[in-house]
Every structure is written in C-alpha cells, then in structure tokens.
TrEMBL record:
This is SigE family RNA polymerase sigma factor. It holds the Pfam family Sigma70_r2. It comes from the Bacteria. NCBIfam families: SigE-fam_strep, sigma70-ECF. Belongs to the sigma-70 factor family. ECF subfamily. Residues 103-155 form the RNA polymerase sigma factor 70 region 4 type domain. Residues 18-80 form the RNA polymerase sigma-70 region domain. Keywords: DNA-binding, Sigma factor, Transcription, Transcription regulation. Gene3D superfamilies: 1.10.1740.10, Winged helix-like DNA-binding domain superfamily/Winged helix DNA-binding domain. It comes from Catenulispora pinistramenti.
Length: 172
C-alpha cells in the first residue's frame, strides 16, 4: 500500500472514530484531558501498525484493545499515580437523562481498580461478551467474570444511599 493511500485511509478512520475512542478513554480514566492523551497515544500506536490494523476483521475491536492496553500500561507506572492524584476534573457538556446519577456513576467508576474499571467499561459500555473482554485484556474468561463481579459489588456499595454523601463530596 502506498504511503499516501495508507495515510488517507488512517486519517479517514480516525476522523470517523476519534470521538468514540475519546469517550471510551474517558470512561476508563474519568478525566477528559487525560482521555484525549490516551486516545492520542492509542492513535499513534494504531498508525505505526496501520498496514496490519487495516487488514483486521474488526478494526474497532483492535483499536479498543490498543486503547485499553495504553490505559493499563499507564496505570502501572508510578508517574500516573503522582501526576493524576489530585486533579480537578473539567466536565464537557454531554446530554444526560439524569445528570446526578451520571455524576454519581462517574465518581464511583473512578474509585474502582484500573482492571475492574476496564472490565466494566468493556462489558457494559462497549457491550463485549466475557470472551471478547478476556481477549482484549489478555486474561481468562474466569478472570473477567471475577473482576466484573467484584467491580459490580463495589459499585453497588459506592452507589448505595449510605455512600451517596461520601460521593457527593468527590463530585462537587
């Protein structure tokens, strides 16, 4: 494939799917600025491998896996814990049916462990099966099931009426 054709094809794909990548990244990290950085890093990795990526049966699946890997790689570094420990979140305007519930859910998602958050986002936002999620995360289906169960239990606790007061202090 000629470089100009390759670049045009990649640009077309990224123009169409960059908003989706940013939304998935936001659900993973909970910060729009950091989500933009994650999506950009994922785009760079996709571009480097575009000849192989463009031949994949499911380019969105490949891109999603790259994005999750970028997020999890970042979470493993000490720099991410230092850099993002005390951040002020700037929310973008987004249509929501229940803004309070959405904010509560986002605050609760931020309190999950990175792999649990990735599992919940992949299973319930990206609507992947257990097997597909296991493939993206590079683990067994049993691990996905246990991570999902732990994450949902933690979310139930965090979103219970007793925890609502605690979460209110985080989101405001």
């Amino acid at each position: 494939m000629a470089r100009a054709d390759r670049d045009a094809e990649f640009t077309e794909y990224l123009r169409a799917r960059s908003g989706w990548l940013c939304r998935v990244a936001y659900l993973l990290c909970g910060d729009w600025h950091r989500a933009d950085d994650l999506a950009q890093a994922a785009a760079v990795r996709l571009y480097r491998r575009w000849n192989r990526v463009s031949q994949a049966d499911n380019i969105d699946g490949y891109a999603r896996r790259v994005l999750v890997n970028v997020y999890l790689d970042e979470q493993r570094t000490a720099w991410s814990r230092f850099t993002f420990l005390h951040r002020d979140t700037i929310e973008r305007e987004a249509p929501a049916l229940d803004a309070d519930a959405s904010l509560d859910l986002r605050a609760a998602l931020e309190r999950l462990a990175p792999r649990q958050r990735a599992t919940v986002v992949l299973r319930y936002y990206c609507d992947l099966s257990v097997e597909q999620t296991a493939e993206v995360l590079g683990c067994s289906p049993g691990n996905v099931k246990s991570q999902t169960a732990r994450a949902l239990t933690r979310l139930r606790v965090l979103l219970s009426p007793a925890s609502a007061i605690e979460l209110e202090g985080i989101t405001r």
